[in-house]
Specification:
β1 and β2 form a beta hairpin. The model has no long low-confidence stretch (mean pLDDT 87). The N and C termini lie far apart (48 Å). This protein has helices at residues 11-25, 50-64, 80-87, 91-99, 116-143, and strands at residues 32-37, 43-48, 77-78, 106-108, 111-115. It has two domains: 11-64, no CATH class; 77-143, Multidrug-efflux Transporter Regulator, Chain: A, Domain 2. The chain has a three-stranded antiparallel β-sheet with strand order 3-5-4. The chain has a two-stranded antiparallel ribbon with strand order 1-2. By secondary structure, it is α+β, with helices and mostly antiparallel strands.
């Protein structure tokens, strides 16, 4: 299981992340070369794959907003509390979703455990269904000539 500790940005971190986001925004090449400088003065030029560069930009943008950031791999197994936080729902609501079979889980003793990739799949399915309903409502509004 790969999981980094949560990063709780200080005000100094937030400001540094804000500046970094602006600097990284200038990199247009999907895979970019960036120069890293450590606090000890060491430096290196690093070529980042496009996905890592996007992830770095997203991570820094979240830190610039003062959000706590945690990185999980797809193989990570979460507790119900962690899974509820990821989905931004209450733990009792998550437990209901698990019992209904909406999200796969397994038991470790008397505790439910959820694979991160199953949560990502559930969230994507929910967002897709939400978009479909919004599109249907928009289409109905157009059909009824409601000014959309």
């Amino acid at each position: 299981m790969v999981k980094l500790d949560a990063i709780v940005p200080s005000e100094r971190d937030r400001l540094a992340a804000e500046m970094s986001v602006r600097q990284l925004a200038s990199i247009q090449d999907p895979a970019g070369v960036i120069d890293l400088h450590g606090p000890d003065g060491a430096s290196a030029s690093v070529t980042l794959p496009a996905g890592v560069l996007r992830l770095l930009k997203d991570l820094l943008a979240a830190m610039a907003r003062g959000e706590v950031v945690t990185l999980y791999s797809n193989e990570t197994i979460l507790t119900t509390v962690q899974a509820a936080e990821f989905l931004q729902v209450s733990r009792p609501h998550l437990t209901k979703l698990l019992k209904q079979g909406d999200i796969p889980y397994h038991m470790v003793g008397s505790h439910r455990r959820i694979r991160f990739e199953d949560l990502v799949a559930f969230k994507a399915q929910q967002e897709s269904a939400r978009r479909d309903v919004l599109q249907e409502l928009t289409d109905q509004a157009v059909d009824l000539d409601m000014g959309y």
